[in-house]
Write a structure and sequence with these properties.
Blueprint (H helix, E strand, L loop, with lengths): L6 E4 L11 E5 L4 E5 L10 H16 L6 E5 L3 E3 L4 H5 L3 H22 L4 E5 L2 E3 L1 H7 L3 E5 L3 E3 L13 H9 L1 H10 L3 E2 H6 L5 E3 L4 H13 L3 H14 L4 H16 L2 H11 L12
Parallel strand pairs: 3-4, 4-6, 5-7, 6-8, 7-9, 8-11
Antiparallel strand pairs: 1-2, 2-3, 9-10
Helix pairs in contact: 1-3, 5-6, 9-10
């Protein structure tokens, strides 16, 4: 495989001597984005969030990128906002500025990416970190991982889409209790409740996630993007509107080279060679 498939990019936001809060590994057909503040359990700062949003924009602009893997360095996936970073800012930025400037755009970027996003939760995912994971399309978690809606512990409400996403995944009763009690939810319980896709042994987490991204990198990318859009729209549409949307998206998907290739491969009894292109 070409060496270019394994490039690493660092996103340092101040001096070149600073350790980058976000690492990006460019693989064959997908990218791995890693939260890189392990000494702070990957808690979010403005520098990290700015770098992460930029990394997502770069991935979207890369026509060879057909999947994304999000994970954390060290013992945690992400523990949400670094309160030391937030308290160092002016009052107006502490009370809502982070949501408007960083977290809200981040969640919307994740949902709008035109390819699958996989979260590999390697340890605790707390606060905004939990809800960033849940904004991804598929969530894998290490058996030792946990999810915590920790906001009430510091007198805040869940953000980063948590009050929208969590009730839709596990129902309002469980979402309400998790948010009000701020108790850790073990990964295996999260799986049994339908909050995440799968729990795997800790040692197998990254290989499982990377294999999944490699599979997506060979998939009909535009069809997967339309699936993402269809599912998100279904929460607001009635049945008639959703049927119309399915009709329109199916027509669009059927006009791609991947549909032609899929049918041809089926009739020839071989594995399809999808390009992921719209035209």
């Amino acid at each position: 495989m070409p060496a270019a498939c394994f490039q690493r990019r660092e996103y340092a936001m101040s001096s070149p001597m600073d350790e980058s809060p976000i690492l990006v590994d460019i693989r064959a057909g997908y990218r791995v984005i890693t939260f890189n503040r392990p000494q702070r359990l990957n808690a979010c700062t403005e520098a990290l969030l700015t770098a992460l949003n930029q990394a997502l924009d770069d991935a979207k602009a890369d026509t060879t990128c057909r999947a994304l893997l999000l994970t954390g360095a060290g013992r945690a996936f992400c523990t949400g906002q670094d309160l030391n970073d937030r308290l160092a800012l002016p009052e107006e930025n502490v009370t809502g500025g982070a949501q408007e400037d960083f977290y809200n755009p981040l969640v919307l970027r994740l949902r709008a990416l035109p390819f699958p996003v996989v979260a590999a939760v390697n340890g605790v995912a707390a606060g905004a970190g939990a809800n960033i994971a849940l904004a991804c399309d598929i969530v894998l978690a290490a058996r030792s991982a946990s999810f915590i809606q920790s906001f009430a512990r510091v007198g805040l409400i869940p953000d980063s889409g948590g009050t929208w996403t969590l009730p839709r995944l596990i129902g309002p009763a469980r979402a309400r209790a998790l948010m009000m009690l701020a108790e850790p939810l073990p990964a295996e319980t999260a799986q049994s409740w339908g909050m995440i896709w799968k729990v795997v042994d800790d040692a197998a987490l990254m290989s499982e996630a990377e294999n999944l991204c490699a599979q997506f990198a060979a998939a009909p990318t535009h069809a997967l993007a339309l699936i993402k859009q269809s599912l998100d729209a279904s929460w607001e549409n009635d049945l008639s509107a959703q049927l119309d949307l399915e009709r329109d998206f199916q027509r669009e998907a059927s006009q791609t080279p991947d549909y032609e290739e899929g049918v041809r491969a089926f009739t020839e009894k071989r594995t399809p060679r999808f390009t992921g292109k719209k035209k």
